[in-house]
Amino acid sequence: MKTPLKRNNRTVAYIIVAWNNQDLLADCIKSIDDQDYKQRRIILVDNASSDNTTEFVEKNYPHVLLLPQEENYGFAKGNNIGIKRALEDSEVTHIVLLNTDARLDRNWTSTLLAATENRPKAATLQSITLDYYDHGIIDSTHIYVSRLGQATQGCFRQPIAYGTDVAPIKTFGCNAAAMLITRKFIEAQPF
User: Fold this and answer.
1) Whole-Å CA distances, 189 to 57, 121, 162, 182
2) pLDDT by residue (tens digit) across 40-64?
3) pLDDT confidence tier of residue 4, bands split at 50, 70 and 90
4) Of 39, 90, 141, 164, whose CB neighbour count within 10 A is largest?
């Protein structure tokens, strides 16, 4: 028998790293706000944008925790800054890394959280990510190591028919454009 999702004891922190792409933030944040899973925090790390990103977020999204940086630390360090802040909140059980150009389906979070119920050792999860401009093209289904030793996006640039789905599989990794990470996994990493 499947264990029901314990919504009352899971909080998800969404980390968005921005740099001069204020024009994408409204749709990105709206897709988080529209999630059917409501126990969440949103943290936006701004990498010293010059396009008024911080003012835009302060004015329009008071519920978003804004972490303005004095320089552009890039994607990886920006996410680490956000993750560190999210983990200061003991209620946060999962972290989502989300690109500013990502848009989540309404049940994205609840679907991935439900998947963790059946996979207690899961570290990271992702769903199919589609091309920003053409939703009929896959951006990524997972990350694997190519024969050249490079991290490569699974099914990159392959067409997808409407309603198509990919069965859950174990993978080498997930695409950080839109991925869920368990707190347990993060805290098990050596620092």
Assistant:
1) 32, 14, 38, 12
2) 999 999 999 999 999 999 999 999 9
3) very low
4) 141
Residue 100 DSSP class: T
If one counts every other C-beta atom within 10 angstroms of the C-beta of residue 46, the result is 23
Q: Residue 45 pairs with which residues in a beta bridge?
A: 17, 67
- Among 45, 37, 123, which Cα is nearest to 79's? 45
Is residue 35 within 8 Å of residue 116, measured between CB atoms?
A: no
Reported as a single tens digit per residue, the pLDDT across 28-43 is 999 999 999 999 999 9
Locate 131 and state its tokens. Answer: 């091309």
CA distance 9 to 186: 18
Q: What is the pTM of this model?
A: 0.86
Query: Own/partner pairs for 156-163, CB < 8 Å, 24+ apart?
Result: 157/131, 160/128, 160/130, 160/136, 161/136, 162/136
Place of tokens 């972490």: 67
Pairing assessment for the beta strands 124-125 and 178-182 based on DSSP bridges = antiparallel
- With contact defined as beta carbons under 8 Å apart, do 91 and 11 qualify? yes
